Amino acid sequence: MKIGIIGATNRTGNVILREAQSRDIDVEIILRDRRRVSSDAEVLEIEPTLLTSDDIEDLDVLVCAFGTGKLNDSSRLYPALIKHLLEITKQSSVRLMVVGSSSCLYTDAKRSQRLFDEPGFPEAAKNSANSLNEVLKLLRASDGVDWTYISPAERFVFRAPRTGHYQLGTDFRSYNAAGLSEVSYADYAIAFVDEIQNHQHINEHISVVSR
């Protein structure tokens, strides 16, 4: 198996990279500046929006872990990237897997409210949340693409241990036995790479919570 990762130098993309390499999965890092890479993985130096179907034809899975936190206009840039990735993976054997956001998870049984609709949702995070929700809409409206969008639990904890245990949820906010909606980056990466290898949630929005 060979996967390509866009965003392998940010926090989430990097833990997915390391988890994939620990399982001897062949990884290609896709980014615009190879000087940012400290990994020994193969590198394709290209602006991701300039990728062609020929560039990814030897991949089984294309992972998009594109970071939106520091973008001034992520609401425009990330959906534009996803539109492009949908186009080059359409009618191909390359699966598109997207690192999602907890902000897009439903919080009520009627599916009328998402986490980013709740009072108190940080104003500074709304631009990124809207961007990632737009990405999800584009995936759902696509045709001829094998995609999966994976959200972490509400509380996504970077400096937390790798327990090796997690539970999958649907597109609703879910909780573990302790009543917490949280997951470590490391356990999220385990779930993400498990899905890469198992290929069980085709064209679905799923979530990961600690167990």
Keywords summarizing the entry:
single chain; 211 residues; alpha/beta; 4 helices; 10 strands; NAD(P)H-binding protein; oxidoreductase activity, acting on the CH-NH group of donors, NAD or NADP as acceptor; Polyketide_Oxido-like
- Describe the global form: globular
Which secondary-structure class do the elements indicate? Answer: alpha/beta
Distance between the termini: 28 Å
Note the beta-strand portion.
15-25%
CATH topology: Rossmann fold
Number of domains: 1
Helical content (DSSP H or I, runs of 4+): 25-40%
Report the biggest beta sheet as strand number plus sense, adding barrel if it closes: 8 strands, mixed
Cα Rg: 16 Å
Oligomer: single chain
Q: Strands of the largest sheet, in order across it?
A: 3-2-1-4-5-6-10-8
Instruction: Spell the H/E element sequence.
Output: EHEEEHEHEEEEHE
* Low-confidence regions: none
CATH C-level category: Alpha Beta
CATH H-level homologous superfamily name: NAD(P)-binding Rossmann-like Domain
CATH architecture: 3-Layer(aba) Sandwich
Query: Number of helix segments?
Result: 4
Mean of pLDDT: 93
Please tally the β strands and state the result. 10
